[in-house]
Amino acid sequence: MAEINASEAGTYKFDNHFVINRLGYGTMQLTGPGVWGPPADPENAVKVVKKAVELGVDFFDTAD
């Protein structure tokens, strides 16, 4: 399976200094039941976030 990089989706510019890749990651499903609390598998949650960074994700949506 070929890996893509989030930068291939283009970028979004907030101002002259803040530019992110358009492809971000919504972290809501990393948490515990009902999207609150610690994840059921904290080690795997860390692996998921690290993999997202490896794939060029530089915007993480933590809002509920």
UniProtKB/TrEMBL annotation:
Pfam families: Aldo_ket_red (PF00248). InterPro entries: NAD(P)_OxRdtase_dom_sf, NADP_OxRdtase_dom. Gene3D superfamilies: NADP-dependent oxidoreductase domain. Residues 22-64 form the NADP-dependent oxidoreductase domain. This is NADP-dependent oxidoreductase domain-containing protein.
